[in-house]
């Protein structure tokens, strides 16, 4: 077994105190997201999405956050994908933003709801044409024999849609994760990290707790 126990570093970019916290967690999330973007992180919107299959086996994958507001966190995907099938059976999920270089994490738990066709179409029309075509090409999570299968299908669909707009595939959609808890983690010296958990009480109010690191 490869021993990795000697890999460690101190977290010393600053702490997080109760007085720093707004009453609404989305205000702090927006501030941290802007700081992640300003820091030049390569994928500040990348988040891990966790789902569970019918046997209780957890799965995780990285997707990109496309919108967020007080109503939740939005991402788009193929509705035939493994994660979509899981969410159809169990809508509970969690998200994780791992902003390592800022010594921060944000962990969210909640439930997923499908977006309306209008919401999906509005976003789909903003995508580059090649990305729109790619949505038609991949039967996400299914097995394929070789990359050339994807490339051939992409060329075929590119020819098909070369002279017009690319229509929205009926199997392509999105989800809004309606948060029930949002945890903010800030690294601290000597492993004395700062963790604050927002628990949703009702439509407007959140309870805030400090957690041990």
TrEMBL record:
<dbReference type="Pfam" id="PF10590">
    <property type="entry name" value="PNP_phzG_C"/>
</dbReference>
<feature type="binding site">
    <location>
        <position position="185"/>
    </location>
    <ligand>
        <name>FMN</name>
    </ligand>
</feature>
<comment type="subunit">
    <text>Homodimer.</text>
</comment>
<comment type="pathway">
    <text>Cofactor metabolism; pyridoxal 5'-phosphate salvage; pyridoxal 5'-phosphate from pyridoxamine 5'-phosphate: step 1/1.</text>
</comment>
<feature type="binding site">
    <location>
        <begin position="191"/>
        <end position="193"/>
    </location>
    <ligand>
        <name>substrate</name>
    </ligand>
</feature>
<feature type="binding site">
    <location>
        <begin position="76"/>
        <end position="77"/>
    </location>
    <ligand>
        <name>FMN</name>
    </ligand>
</feature>
<keyword id="KW-0664">Pyridoxine biosynthesis</keyword>
<feature type="binding site">
    <location>
        <position position="127"/>
    </location>
    <ligand>
        <name>substrate</name>
    </ligand>
</feature>
<dbReference type="GO" id="GO:0010181">
    <property type="term" value="F:FMN binding"/>
</dbReference>
<dbReference type="InterPro" id="IPR019740">
    <property type="entry name" value="Pyridox_Oxase_CS"/>
</dbReference>
<feature type="binding site">
    <location>
        <begin position="8"/>
        <end position="11"/>
    </location>
    <ligand>
        <name>substrate</name>
    </ligand>
</feature>
<feature type="binding site">
    <location>
        <position position="105"/>
    </location>
    <ligand>
        <name>FMN</name>
    </ligand>
</feature>
<feature type="binding site">
    <location>
        <position position="123"/>
    </location>
    <ligand>
        <name>substrate</name>
    </ligand>
</feature>
<dbReference type="InterPro" id="IPR000659">
    <property type="entry name" value="Pyridox_Oxase"/>
</dbReference>
<dbReference type="InterPro" id="IPR019576">
    <property type="entry name" value="Pyridoxamine_oxidase_dimer_C"/>
</dbReference>
<keyword id="KW-0288">FMN</keyword>
<dbReference type="InterPro" id="IPR012349">
    <property type="entry name" value="Split_barrel_FMN-bd"/>
</dbReference>
<feature type="binding site">
    <location>
        <position position="66"/>
    </location>
    <ligand>
        <name>substrate</name>
    </ligand>
</feature>
<feature type="binding site">
    <location>
        <position position="131"/>
    </location>
    <ligand>
        <name>substrate</name>
    </ligand>
</feature>
<comment type="function">
    <text>Catalyzes the oxidation of either pyridoxine 5'-phosphate (PNP) or pyridoxamine 5'-phosphate (PMP) into pyridoxal 5'-phosphate (PLP).</text>
</comment>
<feature type="binding site">
    <location>
        <begin position="140"/>
        <end position="141"/>
    </location>
    <ligand>
        <name>FMN</name>
    </ligand>
</feature>
<feature type="domain" description="Pyridoxamine 5'-phosphate oxidase N-terminal">
    <location>
        <begin position="34"/>
        <end position="159"/>
    </location>
</feature>
<feature type="binding site">
    <location>
        <position position="83"/>
    </location>
    <ligand>
        <name>FMN</name>
    </ligand>
</feature>
<protein>
    <recommendedName>
        <fullName>Pyridoxine/pyridoxamine 5'-phosphate oxidase</fullName>
        <ecNumber>1.4.3.5</ecNumber>
    </recommendedName>
</protein>
<keyword id="KW-0560">Oxidoreductase</keyword>
<dbReference type="Pfam" id="PF01243">
    <property type="entry name" value="PNPOx_N"/>
</dbReference>
<feature type="binding site">
    <location>
        <begin position="61"/>
        <end position="66"/>
    </location>
    <ligand>
        <name>FMN</name>
    </ligand>
</feature>
<feature type="binding site">
    <location>
        <position position="195"/>
    </location>
    <ligand>
        <name>FMN</name>
    </ligand>
</feature>
<keyword id="KW-0285">Flavoprotein</keyword>
<feature type="domain" description="Pyridoxine 5'-phosphate oxidase dimerisation C-terminal">
    <location>
        <begin position="172"/>
        <end position="213"/>
    </location>
</feature>
<dbReference type="GO" id="GO:0008615">
    <property type="term" value="P:pyridoxine biosynthetic process"/>
</dbReference>
<dbReference type="GO" id="GO:0004733">
    <property type="term" value="F:pyridoxamine phosphate oxidase activity"/>
</dbReference>
<dbReference type="InterPro" id="IPR011576">
    <property type="entry name" value="Pyridox_Oxase_N"/>
</dbReference>
<feature type="binding site">
    <location>
        <position position="82"/>
    </location>
    <ligand>
        <name>FMN</name>
    </ligand>
</feature>
<comment type="pathway">
    <text>Cofactor metabolism; pyridoxal 5'-phosphate salvage; pyridoxal 5'-phosphate from pyridoxine 5'-phosphate: step 1/1.</text>
</comment>
<comment type="similarity">
    <text>Belongs to the pyridoxamine 5'-phosphate oxidase family.</text>
</comment>
